[in-house]
Each structure stands twice: as C-alpha cells, then as structure tokens.
Design goal:
The protein is α+β, with helices and mostly antiparallel strands. The chain has two domains: 6-119, Thiol Ester Dehydrase, Chain A (Roll), CATH 3.10.129; 128-280, Thiol Ester Dehydrase, Chain A, CATH 3.10.129. Helices cover 16% and strands 35% of the residues. The protein has helices at 52-65, 179-201, 272-280, and strands at residues 10-11, 17-20, 28-33, 73-80, 90-97, 100-107, 110-119, 128-130, 158-160, 163-167, 210-221, 230-235, 245-253, 256-270. Strands 1, 2, 3, 4, 5, 6, 7, 8, 9, 10, 11, 12, 13 and 14 form a 14-stranded antiparallel sheet that branches. This is A-factor biosynthesis hotdog domain-containing protein. It comes from Mycolicibacterium arenosum.
C-alpha cells in the first residue's frame, strides 16, 4: 500500500483528521489521524494507546470529507485487529467499492483496523412504545470509565418493561466535527459507555477491569432527532456469559419512543495481568 506522506497533504482543522489527501487517487481517499494526548475528550484519562473511539470518529470524518455520509441512515462496521500506538502516524483510507466503502487504518506498515460504510438498506419496523421515564442526571463517571463528568454521554439507568434505558446527553457529544459525523459518533460513544456500565453491572466485571473495544456495527441515522425529542438507548438484559457482544437499540423519544437504529459492540474484558500480556504480544 502506498502511504501518504504528511508533507503532501493539507491541514484540516477538525477534531480527528490532521491532514487530508488533497484529491482521491483511484477512488481512494486518505488522511492522517490527529493524535493529541491532551485532547480532553478522547484522552479523558491516561492511556497507553490511541483509543478506538478516536479511530471511529476519524473514519467518519474522512467519510464526510469524501461525501460518503450523505444517506439519511448508514451502516458502519469497524473491527480492531491491533492496538493503535501513540508514537507513530496513523493513516486512514476510504475506498469506494461496489456494495460499500471499505476503510483501513495503517500504522507502521500494518493494518490495525478495517471497516465498511454504506447506506442502511434494511428498514426498521415502525415500532412505537410508551416513552420510559428517562433520568436527567448522568451515569457515575467511574461506571463508564470517564474521569471528567462532562464526558459522560449517558444518563442514569431506567428499567422499563424488562428493558434497560439511558438518555443520550447531546452536550457530551463528540464536538468540533461536522454534524453528520457528530450524530453518528455521539450515538456510538453513548452506546460504548452504556456497554461499559452493562459489563460492570450485568457482566459482573469488577471496577478496574480493562474493557477492550474489539469491534462495532452501527446502523443509525446521520441526523439527531428534532429539538423536542431526545435520543435514548435500550438493552434487553442477557445472562452474564452473553455480554461479550451486546445489541443496543437507538430510539428517538418524545411522547412515544421510536426505534431509529441499533449498535452492536463487541468487547473483551481483561485484568491487569492479561492486559500486560496482550500489550507485550
């Protein structure tokens, strides 16, 4: 693969893309991820690697620059195959292909993540439900691995009709990126935090457990609901042994709750010893 030289690109003043190829080559769009350890959102607490959410948002931002986020609803899949390190440039590419747009993240000549972005073709059922009483507060920061309370993206847990619900805090959305990027990325980040809380409370993983983001599939709108509505997430509880891959539903909530999308997140939970072994390997 031909790696784009940083000096040949133009600076994009955004949250996640430092430089962008001035023109696609053979239908391939490329850019370099901005990795700023002082970023108050992506590096909310000390990390020894680049967080997966930074890669997610960088991929979506590149997609927006390449006019790939235009559909009202998209399907975005991403699988992480290696840790992304802090000390080497990370290139992300988007290639237009039949049946979807392929994404790849390259660091030090090796693929560290791959993905696919396309239009969501499957229509959701016209499901209307009584709106749950969503809490206005925030989830405790330690329960979602956030040090800064302003970075907590979900409200407290509400159990209604056998499902667990949380409100999405738009104020904690990924900021500084185009609106379509923010709409998709903030839903994914809220779902990721929701999953962390689920893994602690239902998966029975103790505090201090490291939760590794393995992959995701997000079928979501590229716009947030109107101002009179709010976004919420819900989950149907499953046994602890079935929590490695969690299906989260996305809703627009007003007088009624309408399902507008879904996010599936796969993770791996390890203790400090297992984590050190993974990093050493």
């Amino acid at each position: 693969m031909q790696v784009l030289a940083p000096s040949a690109t133009r600076v994009i003043r955004g949250r996640t893309i430092d430089t962008l190829d001035p023109g696609p080559t053979g239908g391939v769009h490329r850019g370099f991820i901005r990795v700023d350890p002082h970023d108050p959102v992506f590096f909310d607490h000390p990390l020894d690697h680049v967080p997966g959410m930074l890669q997610v948002v960088a991929g979506l931002e590149l997609a927006e620059h390449a006019a790939l986020l235009r559909p009202a609803n998209v399907s975005f899949r991403l699988t992480f195959t290696r840790f992304c390190e802090l000390d080497a440039p990370v290139e992300v590419s988007a290639t237009r292909e039949t049946g979807g747009n392929a994404f790849e993240f390259i660091q030090s000549g090796r693929s560290i993540a791959t993905g696919l972005l396309g239009r969501r073709e499957t229509a959701l059922p016209a499901e209307l439900a009584v709106a749950p009483a969503l809490g206005n507060g925030s989830m405790p920061g330690e329960l979602v691995h956030r040090a800064d309370p302003d970075n907590v993206a979900v409200g407290p847990l509400t159990v209604n009709a056998g499902r667990v619900w949380v409100r999405v805090h738009e104020r904690a959305a990924i900021g500084g990126v185009p609106s379509r990027v923010s709409a998709v990325a903030s839903a994914i980040e809220a779902a990721r935090q929701f999953v962390i809380a689920i893994l602690h409370l239902w998966g029975r993983h103790p505090m201090g457990t490291k939760m590794i983001f393995v992959g995701l599939t997000a079928d979501v709108p590229t716009q947030v609901p109107p101002a009179e509505m709010t976004r919420a997430l819900s989950w149907q509880p499953t046994p602890p042994e079935q929590t490695r891959k969690l299906h989260i539903d996305v809703h627009a909530v007003g007088d009624r709750a309408t399902t507008v999308g879904s996010i599936v997140i796969a993770s791996r939970c390890v203790d400090d010893v297992e984590y050190a072994q993974l990093r050493a390997g």
